[in-house]
Design a protein that fits this description.
The protein has 105 residues and is α+β, with helices and mostly antiparallel strands. The chain has a single domain, classed as SH3 type barrels (Roll). The protein is 22% helix and 40% strand. A 7-stranded mixed beta sheet has the order 1-7-6-2-3-4-5. The longest helix has 10 residues. The chain is globular and about 45 Å long.
Length: 105
């Protein structure tokens, strides 16, 4: 099996491309996990091109009392959309085991 770095995985996800992903589960509060989940087709949720993000940031004012910042980059998490059923799931990037058929280092 080929290998891929986590950096390349994140670059591919951030580019808005569809991908397959295998992840391990873990709940630090319950100290429980280890289940392997494979998703055949997913995409990073709410992907927008950088030019679109800049335009949106300039054109709209955010209501900070309603929106909560998930701090994805600080917490090493990402939201992905499963294409088969449209569900959104939050994954921890350190628990990614497989990406597009490649083992993640």
């Amino acid at each position: 099996m080929e290998t891929i770095t986590l950096e390349k995985v994140l670059e591919t996800m951030d580019a808005g491309k569809r991908f397959s992903i295998g992840i391990r589960t873990y709940d630090h509060r319950k100290e429980k996990g280890g289940e392997y989940i494979f998703i055949e087709e997913a995409v990073k949720h709410n992907y927008k091109l950088p030019s679109e993000r800049n335009a949106m940031a300039k054109s709209e004012e955010r209501n900070s009392s309603i929106l909560r910042n998930p701090n994805h980059y600080d917490n090493s998490t990402r939201n992905i959309k499963v294409m088969a059923n449209g569900n959104l799931i939050k994954i921890h990037i350190r628990l990614i085991v497989e990406f597009n058929g490649c083992k993640v280092l």
